[in-house]
Amino acid sequence: MKGQTAGRLTKDGITLHEKSDFDGMRASCQLAAATLDMIGEHVKVGVSTLELDTIIHEYIEANGATSATVGYRGYQHASCISLNHVVCHGIPSDKRIKDGDILNIDVTCILDGWFGDTSRMYKAGKLSRRAERLIDVTHEALFKGIEQVKPGNTFGDIGAAIQRFVEKQRMSVVRDFCGHGLGRVFHSAPNVLHYGRWGTGPVLEPGMFFTIEPMVNLGRPDTKVLADDWTAVTKDRTLSAQFEHSIGVTEDGCEIFTLSPAGKFYPTWTD
Question: What is the pLDDT of residue 14?
Fold first, then answer.
């Protein structure tokens, strides 16, 4: 794929990066993670999502990087901010955050040509028990998937582990959106599904870079995209949550590139 680092391609078209490429990914992803650390204190009742996006954009540029989403397919913001029943790709706007809202903030930084992609859940005011449990389950589901990332396992193992855990909690995994490969491009092979069957799909090999980013709904998994062609919502308007890490497969497991420098990946709040 144009722009992708020189590296061997698997038969499934997945790039196997060199060990030296881990340094570039680590730097970009740590900036993305630091951006989400920074924004947490600004998530408050009464703040607009556009105000949050402006702070994010300024922070990324002040740290010598650019936002991958500004100008991407016509998108004009440095983040996607998805409130309550918005599954993903929520567009920052003048809409003000209300007491009890939950929101996912998703950022991708480009630093020295490498794309670092991550998202977390935040809350404003008092969290309902149902919302808190949804966020807990979604966070744990992400790490159920990450536990499967090691050479010899398959991408189907990642999806199966996430799906089995989530459905045991009587929640549902969104099927309309998935994780993706990345590196020196924003999106590349493979599609990383958050559901599936054990032992299916491409085999994991050292040097693969990709995201795992399960979206979990309190209700049914069905979604619809609104007329703006970006915002995806739950069809039944139940709450949705998402967490995302960028991952690199190593010789004996994986490296999570987007771990929080301040230990704030979850929870992102202190009360």
Answer: 97
Q: Is residue 29 within 8 Å of 79, Cβ to Cβ?
A: no
pLDDT score of 3: 43
Tens digit of each residue's pLDDT (9 = 90 or more) over 44-97? 999 999 999 999 999 999 999 999 999 999 999 999 999 999 999 999 999 999
- Domain ranges, ordered by start, for the chain: 10-256
Closest CA to 31 of 7, 67, 1: 67
SS (H, E, C) the chain: CCCCCCCEECCCCCEECCCCHHHHHHHHHHHHHHHHHHHHHHCCCCCEHHHHHHHHHHHHHHCCCEECCCCHHHCCCCCEEEECCEEECCCCCCCECCCCCEEEEEEEEEECCEEEEEEEEEECCCCCHHHHHHHHHHHHHHHHHHCCCCCCCEHHHHHHHHHHHHHHCCCEECCCCCEEECCCCCCEEEEECCCCCCCCCCECCCCCEEEECCEEECCCCCEEECCCCCCEEECCCCCEEECEEEEEECCCCEEECCCCCCCCCCCCCCC
CA-CA-CA-CA torsion sign (96, 52, 242, 115): positive
What is the structure's pLDDT at 7? 73
| CATH code at 10-256 | 3.90.230.10
The b-or-e profile of 1-34 (16+ CB within 10 A means b, else e) is: eeebbebeeeeeebbbbeeebbebbbbbbbbbbb
pLDDT in tens, 2-39: 344 457 999 999 999 999 999 999 999 999 999 999 99
| Edge-to-edge order in the sheet of strand 223-225 | 86-88, 232-234, 223-225
